[in-house]
Every structure is written in structure tokens, then in C-alpha cells.
Design brief:
Blueprint lengths: L2 E9 L16 E5 L3 E5 L6 H8 L6 E7 L2 E2 L5 H10 L1 E4 L11 H12 L4 H10 L15 H12 L6 E5 L7 H18 L2 E6 L10 E4 L1
Parallel strand pairs: 3-8, 3-9, 6-7, 7-8
Antiparallel strand pairs: 1-2, 1-4, 4-5
């Protein structure tokens, strides 16, 4: 996948607005593989909705979203499965971890499908993010910041053309933000992937090619 294209896209909840003042809604916009984008937004402007639309979780919008020119509304279930496994790595704002499973088990659920990282690489990421002792603890017992770091590791355990991050460092301090930014940048560079990150103020500290206001 080389491009994600939005054409006059608008959430149904915003219907009737002639101009939202957004760089994204009701615009012709293309996200290109290999480039990095920051979507700066205020709460309630639709950043999580946008991520859900791109990932195919929701369809309550008008206009068009396309992957390499193909309307995503025409994709089959099998095609969506392939896209989510091999083309778009997504970190949702609510992280969607399984609280009853350990941190490592949450990672293994995904990596067992993608086989993208070795166990040594996964353990090294836990070390790098300062949570090696949390590997075998249930996620429910971790702090929100620790859960967010686990979710980042899981996101990076797959091949992809785009890394889609919805407020990926909202619960992290500047030091951990910098570590996450470095890990995302390294993985994107390794795969030639694009990065689309949203933020309401605490931006992930990656260099971006373009900032868009939502």
C-alpha cells in the first residue's frame, strides 16, 4: 500500500457543516508511504473517528477513503484481515489490551500471527521502555503508562506500510516519549512505512513531514 486517500470525508455527526476549518475533513488529502504526519486536534474534533475509519472499524462518514485508489467500502473481510495483519499497524487510544493476560501474552497474541519479532527482540523492547519486570504481570495490574508502553510494543510487532497511532504517548513522560518516538522511527525506517499520529497536545516526538489541524 502506497497511499491512503481521503476525498470530502466527513463524520456523519458533523453533517451540514460547510467548512469545519479542518485540514482533513472535506478536503482532498493523501497520506503517502514513507512520510510522517501529525494530526493535531482538539478534543471532539474526530481524531479517533478518523483512525477508526481508516482501519475499517467504523463507516459512519460521508465522502470516500481509498487505499491506492480503491474505495475501502468495497474491501472483503479477508482483504481487511490482510490489511490489518500486513499493511496498517494501529495503536488505538484505548489500547485494547486484554487485562486478564500478561503483558507478554498480549504481545504474543499478535506476534504469533505475524511472526514479525523474535522473543529476544520483544524482550529488548520491554527493556528499552523500562518495564522488563512487567513481562509476566497481568495487564490489569499495570499503570496506564505501563499499559501504553505494552501497546506500543504490540503495535510494532507486524509488517506494515503505515503505522497509525492515536495519542500514543498521552500517558507518558518526556523520557518515555523520546524512547517511543525512536522505536517508531526505527521501525518505520526499517519497513519504509508512513506514520500517521494524532495528538491533543502531547505529541509523540518524531520528526514529521506535515502537520495537519483537525
Amino acid at each position: 500500500m502506497e497511499k491512503i486517500q481521503l476525498t470530502n470525508t466527513l463524520p456523519h455527526v458533523f453533517a451540514g457543516r460547510e467548512d469545519t476549518g479542518s485540514d482533513v475533513w472535506l478536503r482532498e488529502l493523501t497520506f503517502e508511504r514513507g512520510k510522517r504526519y501529525l494530526i493535531a486536534a482538539e478534543s471532539g474534533t474526530g481524531k479517533s473517528s478518523l483512525c477508526s475509519y481508516i482501519y475499517g472499524y467504523r463507516i459512519d462518514y460521508s465522502g470516500k477513503i481509498a487505499f491506492d485508489g480503491r474505495n475501502i467500502n468495497t474491501l472483503s473481510v479477508a482483504e481487511w484481515c490482510d490489511i490489518r495483519c500486513r499493511h496498517i499497524a494501529y495503536l488505538a487510544q484505548d489500547m485494547r489490551l486484554f487485562p486478564e493476560l500478561t503483558a507478554l501474552e498480549n504481545i504474543q497474541l499478535k506476534n504469533g500471527i505475524t511472526h514479525h519479532k523474535s522473543e529476544t527482540e520483544i524482550r529488548a523492547m520491554f527493556e528499552r521502555l523500562g518495564i522488563p519486570e512487567k513481562l509476566n504481570q497481568p495487564v490489569a495490574l499495570l499503570s496506564i503508562g505501563q499499559q501504553q508502553r505494552v501497546a506500543v510494543i504490540r503495535t510494532l510487532c507486524q509488517p506494515c506500510d503505515f503505522i497509525l497511532l492515536d495519542e500514543p504517548v498521552s500517558h507518558l513522560d518526556s523520557a518515555n516519549n523520546a524512547i517511543v518516538a525512536a522505536m517508531v522511527t526505527e521501525e518505520a525506517d526499517r519497513q519504509g512505512a508512513g506514520v500517521i499520529s494524532t495528538s491533543v497536545g502531547n505529541n509523540v516526538a518524531i520528526e514529521v513531514d506535515r502537520t495537519l489541524n483537525l
